[in-house]
Design a protein that fits this description.
Blueprint: H1 2-19, E1 25-36, E2 42-47, E3 57-62, E4 76-85, E5 88-99, H2 112-116, E6 132-134, E7 139-140, E8 149-155, H3 165-181, E9 188-194, H4 202-211, E10 219-224, H5 226-234, E11 240-242, E12 250-252, E13 255-259, E14 265-270, H6 276-286
Parallel strand pairs: 8-9, 9-10
Antiparallel strand pairs: 1-2, 1-4, 2-3, 4-5, 6-7, 6-10, 8-13, 11-12, 13-14
Helix pairs in contact: 3-6
The protein binds copper (II) ion (CU).
Copper (II) ion (CU) is lined by residues 156, 159, 161, 164-165, 252.
Length: 290
Amino acid sequence: MRIRILFCLGIALLASACSGTPNRHEYTLQGQILAIAADRKDATIKHEDIKGFMPAMTMPYKVRDAKEYDNLAPGDLVTATLVVVSNDAYLKDVKKVGNAPLEKPPAEAAMPTASAGFELLKLGQPVPDAKFINQDGKPTTLASLQGSAVIVTFIYTNCPMPTFCPLMDRHFATIQEKLKAEHNELKVHLLSVSFDPAADTPPVLKKHAEKLGADPKLWTFVTGDRDDIDQWASRFGVSVSRAMNDQRDITHNLRTAILDRQGNLVQTYTGNEWTPEQMLADVRVMVGVD
Ligand SMILES: [Cu+2]
């Protein structure tokens, strides 16, 4: 009996040791710091190609130790190690290697209100409809979801950063699970909008949705005409920019929003700090049970 217990314990330890070794990769990043967050745990960096991982782009990178960004300022050229684990990514060993004048303000600062002339939606305002194509290739509209509270987010399926679009996908999957557990008594529908229609064709979205276990009754993936989607997304504060020379090079921020049952904007979330629990609690308070 004792031997058997010890043996099981051995197996358990072995198993936890194995699963405790996450799928970890390290890459070298070279770039220029454009901005550093007030808590000094996040910086917007314009960087070169990260070989084997992602093309050159500008995006925020967090660090686990705020000291990493100590003594650094916008304009500084840096090298760093990008650590990517299955559900997180962060920089370590950030080293200053030089300084150069800043070319232009970071993407996040270029608000769509100023650049495109599309006004940000205000809380309480009706969200305009758009012509979407869903994962089945069928035209669909927001109006078809009326009667449900809608949680909408913006993604593209090729996003390489575990803390960006893939995190939104994981959060939506968690929300779906929670909704199902209570038979969707909140009457919520999830809407993931891809701003990369060139790559995210309906069959690609469908495969992506299936991989995430998305139930089409609760969670719809859509895309549409690129300019239409960009314009619609910009009204939530989404800013997307694509490199001329590389289709995959998409720089974007994150916005997630709650729409009430009549299609009015109820709340917007910036970035990736929100949690599925908070989101559902907010829907419960701000929209309520039908
Ligand atoms: Cu992304």
